[in-house]
Amino acid sequence: MDFLQLPIRTAKPRAYGLTSIIDTGISYGELKNMLKDYGHFIDVAKLGMGSAYITPNLKDKIDLYKEFNITPYCGGTLFEKSYFQNKVSEYSNYLKGLGIDWIEVSTGTINIPLQERLNLISLLVKDFHVIAEVGSKDIHNQMSVSEWKNEIKLLLDAGCNYVITEGRDSGTAGIYDQNGNIKTNLISYLLEDLDYKKIIFEAPTPKQQMFFINEIGSNVNLGNVKLNDVLVLETQRRGLRCETFYIGEQESILPI
Q1: How many domains does the chain have?
Q2: Which range of residues forms the domain containing residue 30?
Q3: Is the keyword Lyase in the record (predicted)?
Q4: Beta strand pairing call for 102-105 and 222-226
Q5: Gap between the Cα atoms of 226 and 20, Å rounded
Q6: Could you tell me where the DSSP H helices lie in the chain?
Q7: φ and ψ at 5, to 5 degrees?
Q8: pLDDT in tens, 84-113
Q9: Backbone phi, then psi, for 164, in 5-degree steps?
Q10: pLDDT tens, 219-250?
Q11: Would the pTM of this model clear 0.90, i.e. be above it?
């Protein structure tokens, strides 16, 4: 019996409040067992890095995600590898053949000029839901806060459904320093004018996830979530963990 009053959560299919996991190689059998219990907490699954290109039973995994109403897509590194080798057209056909209709345009490993990315997005939106990533995996490649905001705005205006803020699967780049500390001034600045519902904040650790939940609310979009942490994250979103205990207590609340 439900008896607690908890923060309102958006329901699947969600437009925001997304939990986007990173799949770094879980086997088909393990994934099926995990999704049976936790699939209703997950909205998006990124096949991490360029792993999709060599993943066994890839089509079966993609179909399994879809069975649980989870959107699968390939990590931006695979896009960058294809761009670097002048194979973006072939990559697009590869995704279509797999039944993937989301594509990530990123510049985390190689430098793809912003205008070039905008041009690519204008072409890709004809066939895909496009998400773009801002920020570099190189901790020495720093952007000013104004550059972050300007780039996100331009990418959204170009037709991206969402923009991802780089954090790596380790939480040590982009919106974090090399020790995993959140660049809080940067986040505050981004939230001044941008719609948080259109931003997916990469937050691979519970500490980072708790920051965004307390700063923005239960329905913040979070990415690079580890599959084993999905239940813990939803617990945080519902105000059922000490660090997020009071989330939603001053908002309109409904039973779970």
Answers
A1: 1
A2: 5-255
A3: yes
A4: unpaired
A5: 9
A6: 28-38, 58-67, 76-84, 88-98, 114-124, 145-157, 184-193, 206-216, 230-237
A7: -95, 120
A8: 999 999 999 999 999 999 999 999 889 999
A9: -100, 135
A10: 999 999 999 999 999 999 999 999 999 987 75
A11: yes
